[in-house]
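User: Structure please.
Assistant: Input sequence and predicted structure:
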Amino acid sequence: MLFGAKFLLGVGSVCTILFLGGGSLLVSDSSEKSNITGKDSLKIVKKQYVSTFLLPEQLTFAGEQVPMNDPDVRERIERELIQNSYKHSATLLILKREGRWRKEISRILKEEGLPEDFFYLAVAESELDEHAQSGVGAVGFWQFMKTTALSYNLEVSEYVDMRKDPIASTYAACRYLKDAYKRFGNWTLAAASYNRGVTGLDNALKAQKVSNFYDLYLNRETYRYVMRIIALKLIIENPQAYGFFVEDADKYQPLDSVRTVTIDSTINDLPQFALDMGINYKILKIYNPWINSSDYKLVVPKGKTYIITLPESAIGSLGK
């Protein structure tokens, strides 16, 4: 819970104390002297005292116990918790985007038999930005590389990139994670393999002669990866404890009710197609981020079809 108080310390000096919850305290002290001129004019001093957050003594990920009695595990989770709690703009955007995507992604995870905590893996991968692209070419909510995407039936071509489709890519991610679970028999290791790769993680387990993720010593990125997912879970499940206050009404809302049309031939002018549907090109792209055209076309190979999503309010038709 956030509450605060201001105290007048003297002429032109105010101390503001904000209690951020979770053991965090922010103190700001400002002073000014407006009657001084020249190089000494308007001196303002601000001090901030920022503390860490209390870690839970009991914690699970995907229904599996996190060993909070291990000092190394506690330190690594605390590091990610501090970094993501004080990375204000990015975490605030995550909390707002959650309103648009949490329900639908959770529905698919449940449908596919995965623990709902894997929602936080998508958060860690892309901050719920369907257009996110890494420096090495991973794209979309679930940050698929092209070769992996193709192996999980996500089309990546000149005109289509299904990695940017939140729904299609979520189903593909579920298939990957279920394959990893079959290999390791453990959801935490399946999550780690999403970053390290199944083969890379398997090799590390064999070389170090352990079977538990928390007993592994890994490369820096994967070493932090699962901990970042866990930290984001803590923040999103209880944002006020970490200083974030986002009302449901302030979150981005799910896209309006939709209808679909099936396309079985090339569209040579996507902006005109959108106008014929009673919308514009911008709305078409918002509802169909997988359309990857740079020349306003959607080339449909013979025998192939695509399903285009439109807002329910779209009034046009294909004339068929």
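Residues 258-311 form one domain.
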